[in-house]
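Quick question, first post here. What does this chain look like in 3D?
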Amino acid sequence: MSLDLASSWWLLALLGVAAGALSGSLGIGSGIIVVPALVLLLGCPQKSAQGMALALMVPMAALGVWQYLRTPGVQMNWGAVALLTLGAAVGVMAGTRLMARVPNLWLQRAFAVFLLIVAARMLLSDGARRAAPGASSAAAEKQTDRSK
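> Answer (accepted):
Ran it through. Tokens below.
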């Protein structure tokens, strides 16, 4: 894959701004924005687009966490973050090994189906949150009340 930076630098910079703004404001991963844009707008192969999106996440996520920590009322459960990170580390190793065996077109279609399923679930959801395993019903009610 060869991106012509001389002619597409402005599109890449604009894409970075959009990915950062949506990630920071909605808490979404940059891959939801960056991967389709790189594939559809710049003609990158799916695997290359996924790799670039992953490389973008680390600095963007670190800056985002720093900003969230500075925001009044935002609380981080570092135990949950640690468990999610451990699971994500195992998952990304398995996922990248799987990716190496799957053709670009299949990955592109699987990515699109995943986005459609997530979008449909969010559109059809009533917005109520389920209580985390082991959480008391009072804590769940309080969380639901805050989300209204």
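The CA atoms of residues 18 and 51 lie 18 Å apart.
Residues 1-77 form one domain.
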